[in-house]
Amino acid sequence: YKRQILLGLLLTKLENEFASGTVAYHNLQALNLAEAGIEKAIFELTRTNGVYSGEKNTQLGNGFFSVTVKPTQNGFLITAMGKTRSAAKYSGHRVISVQVQRQSANHWKVLSWEEN
What is the pTM of this model? Predict the structure, then answer.
């Protein structure tokens, strides 16, 4: 009887560790997707000379990103959301907001960076 209880506790602990690792993995992937959205926005702002407002649900790898770009007094506020997909109940979701300012034709300065 004690072995069954011990085995049950061990299996529960293993399942919790697996879930924790899976969530961490998906959150890291979502962060990478959001960063890709930031990079894409800066590329498009450079390419279009500041005429870019963002995009939605751009597929990349095992997920997607959405980006909004808003002009500010000092440059642009870029907000990117990355989200992973999983067949299981786990998925990742991260948001990054970046204030950027154009320094020259191909150079941008990051004024602020916030991750959620």
Answer: 0.83
